[in-house]
Amino acid sequence: MHLLFPQWQGSGFTDELYRGALLLKERMQDLVSFTEIDLEWSSRLEIESGIMGCSQIAAQLQTACGKLIEANPDRIFSIGGDCGIEIAPASFLNKKYAGDLGLIWLDAHGDLNTPESSLSGHFHGMALRLLLGEGAAPILGTAFSRFHSNQIFLIGCRDLDPPEQLFVNREKITLFSVEEIQQRPTAITDSIRDRGFEKIYIHLDLDVLDPQQFPFVKCPTPEGVSFEALLRLVNELKANFEILGFSIVEFCPIRNEGVGKLEELIEVYLSCYRIGPGKTGFENDSAPNSPLV
Predict the structure, then answer these.
(1) How far apart are alpha carbons 259 and 256 in whole angstroms?
(2) Could you give all domains of the chain from N- to C-terminal order, each with its CATH number?
(3) What residue spans of the chain are helical by DSSP H?
(4) How confident is the model at residue 275 (pLDDT cuts 50, 70, 90)?
(5) Which of 174, 177, 124 lies closest to 151, judged by CA?
(6) Quick one: how far is CA 149 from the chain centroid?
(7) What span, in angstroms and rounded, lies between the C-alpha atoms of 26 and 20?
(8) How many C-beta neighbours within 10 Å does residue 86 have?
(9) Spatial contact of 168 and 160, defined as CB atoms under 8 Å apart
């Protein structure tokens, strides 16, 4: 299943992430067919339960969850939107595979705040914490399941708020630095394998990349991962694990620019869907350019 979830409310008042998701869809629409999630548009985002736009976000997640229940997919590849879209697909697959799922969180930020610790009230900074079972009740109630801290691999994170750092230390969440991604990608795959996971979900917030190479993100954060290292890591993950979910989120185009820089990453993303366990090419397709569902 390919999910288009262009939610933007989790990142504040501007809709660049909505436009970014649509640009990515336009690049891929001849290759895949998307299930699109309709958004709750409003001129105002009220702060409820400590979250800006809480009611819109909860309604959109309920819609997404309904689509997932109806389709009951074995794999979900998503285009966002902000990081908050993950509540639906990641928790669905975690429930379906009874927690036998490693969650690879490629992100410059931990997304581990709560409504109480967040300084902005932006939900995209709370998504992973909610997947771990802590957060605002209206949104927490949409999740199919909760992850455990030993399922989480936080990769490329370099901007943790103090409450997030305390949570990471307390829960002993596994972190890999930018340097480790660049120099020792096999150490990441070894860690996932040592934890006993054969199936994984990849969350890719594009701000994990170095903004000198890729500035088209909502929250550019210095000293990030190079394109080459990111592609090498994703290919390493693809070669060693069954990728059941993969999302690309937080693409923030400038004057509709930026998609061209993602061409190689998009090809790798699509190849992770096409090439499943025991497959070597386009076995999911009836013809080379037919839509994938």
Answers:
(1) 8
(2) 2-274 (3.40.800.10)
(3) 16-28, 54-71, 87-96, 127-131, 137-140, 162-171, 178-183, 185-194, 227-240, 263-274
(4) low
(5) 174
(6) 17
(7) 10
(8) 29
(9) yes
Tell me the C-alpha distance between 169 and 171, whole Å: 6
Residue 238 in 3-state DSSP? helix
- DSSP letter at 199? E
Name the helix (H) or strand (E) containing 249.
Answer: strand 242-249
- 260's CB contacts (< 8 A; 6+ apart) are none
Alpha-carbon distances of 253 from 15, 189, 261, 264, rounded to whole Å: 11, 31, 11, 17
**Mean pLDDT, residues 170-198:** 95
Q: What is the pLDDT of residue 285?
A: 35
Residue-level pLDDT at 41: 86
Alpha helix ranges (H) inside 97-218:
127-131, 137-140, 162-171, 178-183, 185-194
Q: Residue 43, CB half-sphere, CA atoms under 13 Å: how many?
A: 0
Give the pLDDT confidence score for residue 12 in this predicted structure: 87
Tell me how far apart the alpha carbons of residues 5 and 59 are, in angstroms, rounded to a whole number.
Answer: 13
For 227-252, what is the mean pLDDT?
Answer: 96
- Tell me the C-alpha distance between 262 and 109, whole Å: 21
Helix (H) or strand (E) holding 48: strand 47-48
**To which residue do tokens 């595979």 refer?**
97
Specify which residues 106 forms β-bridges with: 155, 204
Cis peptide before 121, with omega less than 30 degrees from 0? Answer: no
Give the mean pLDDT of the chain: 92
Please enumerate in sequence order all residues whose Cβ is within 8 A of that of 85, keeping only pairs 6 or more positions apart, or say none. Answer: 3, 5, 7, 37, 61, 64, 78, 247, 249
Q: How confident is the model at residue 108 (pLDDT cuts 50, 70, 90)?
A: very high
Residue 282 has pLDDT above 70, yes or no: no
Alpha-carbon distance 145 to 151, whole Å? Answer: 13
DSSP-derived pairing of the beta strands 35-36 and 2-5: parallel
- Cβ atoms within 10 Å of 170's Cβ, excluding its own: 9
